[in-house]
Amino acid sequence: MFKFEKIFLDIIFKYKDKFFLLVISILGLFIRYQGIHFISWDMKTFLIPWYNVIDAKGGLHALGTQVGDYNILYQTFVALITYLHRNCVVMYKILSILFDYILAVSAGLLCMRLTKKNNSFIFSSIYSIVLFLPTVILNSSYWGQSDSIYTTFVILTLLFLFEEKYLLSFIMLGLGFSFKFQTIFIVPFIICYYVYKKRFSIMYFLASVGIFWLSGLPAYLNGRNLLAPFKIYANQTGTYKQMSISAPSFWILIGNDYKLLHLTAIILTVALCGIALYLIMSGKINLENATSYMAAAAWFTWTCPLFLPAMHERYTYLLDILLVILTFMDNKYLKYAAISILISIITNCASLFGTWHFAIQWCIIACVLAWVHFTYTLLNDNKNSNQEEIATEQS
User: Fold this and answer.
1) What is the Cα gyration radius of the chain?
2) Dist CA 144 CA 297 (whole Å)
3) pLDDT truncated to tens, each residue of the chain (395 aa)?
4) Phi, psi of 58 (to 5 degrees)
5) Residue closest to 192 by CA, chosen among 254, 279, 266
6) For labelling, which of 19, 26, 98, 189 has a CA lying 20 to 30 Å from the CA of 166?
């Protein structure tokens, strides 16, 4: 071996973590570039026309009226890119891709905090897996959707909540809501955590509401109603009159009669979350433990899109990220992550490319069975944990 080779390899070994992150980040950009010009049905039908309307109305001046169904903060971004006179398809995707990287960093930080392993291996592993999850790549670079944005803020919400930085946590929650209403999936868990911990006031939720309201400031300055952000989401709840929109939903097995079943679905979901709250209050689920904390958060974000009506296939995006993190905390959760991600890939590709590999009913059956077993695992883990605590106290 020549001397310069040894020097080169010594440098590589010394800074292996930084080199790995650099290479994996560049490869992440290359793989996303492959889909940057792909125009999905959603892009053609909704996003491009919305951009054209906002552009025709004068960019930021268009914020005085509602265009499309995204909330005001995202519309503000669309208004700003109209001044760049660039390909709007690419610009939409650049924002989402940027948040792919922020999401990967946030997930790595959360995993290190929960595992109490402040090492580069954990961070690099989570970072790379999240960055290269097929659903993450498809969502931003092919679809042009913004799920990585609200998911990033939910991950940061969970990070700061666990660290007892409550104000920061609820600010992140408000920012998540400012981009997508699907942030609501984590709220039942936060309510349960509030009841369990008894260390922060419910008034912190006002910080989230305040941040959400402030996100509409550019629209208020252009004449919009001060309640516009809230009205946008209120209108969204009545947009889709189907029990499932390509989602791995329990209701595909039951029927698609929205008028007859949608209230039943909402009541069932509330009941399931209420049962979980009762179990937490009864000490059957101990949220003090980091693994139980993350498993409970994942359970709620799985339960809501599985049982609520009018769910899209993209609404399990947050769940996939949480299950990846949970797997690194305890590898017995790998099977749930694998099933969830596989079903997400199938349902996402079905909507994006029009491909079905087998009957959707089998996906739903697998999803429901996995959810049932996940629920059992969550409860059984806490039972064993409580027994160990009792045995320790007696000894």
Assistant:
1) 22
2) 27
3) 777 777 777 787 778 888 999 999 999 999 999 999 999 999 999 999 999 999 999 999 999 999 988 999 999 999 999 999 889 999 999 999 999 999 999 999 999 999 988 788 899 999 999 999 999 999 999 999 999 999 999 999 999 999 999 999 999 999 999 999 999 999 999 999 999 999 999 999 999 999 999 999 999 999 999 999 999 998 887 778 889 888 889 998 898 899 999 999 999 999 999 999 999 999 888 888 899 999 999 999 999 999 999 999 999 999 999 999 999 999 999 999 999 999 999 889 888 888 765 567 777 888 999 999 999 999 887 766 655 555 455 55
4) 100, 30
5) 279
6) 98
Residue 9 backbone dihedrals phi, psi, to 5 degrees: -65, -35
Amino acid at 208: S
| Cβ(137)–Cβ(99) below 8 Å | no
Count Cα atoms within 13 angstroms, Cβ side, for 387: 6
Q: What angle do the packed helices 88-115 and 147-162 form, to 10 degrees?
A: 20
Establish how many alpha carbons lie within 13 A of residue 174's alpha carbon, considering only the half-sphere containing its beta carbon.
Answer: 19
> Is residue 245 within a helix (H) or strand (E), and if so which, with residue range?
strand 244-245
As a whole number of angstroms, the distance between CA 224 and CA 217 comes to: 9
Tokens of 105: 């960093």
- Assign 246 to helix, strand or coil: strand
The one-character DSSP state at 175 is H
Q: How far apart are CA 37 and CA 350, in angstroms?
A: 19
**What span, in angstroms and rounded, lies between the C-alpha atoms of 237 and 241?**
9
d(CA 307, CA 244): 10
Phi, psi of 304 (to 5 degrees): -60, -55
Rounded to two decimals, the pTM is 0.93
User: Residues, the chain, total?
Assistant: 395
Which string of DSSP letters, residue by residue, matches 92-111? HHHHHHHHHHHHHHHHHHHH
Query: How far apart are the C-alpha atoms of 119 and 110, rounded to whole Å?
Result: 12
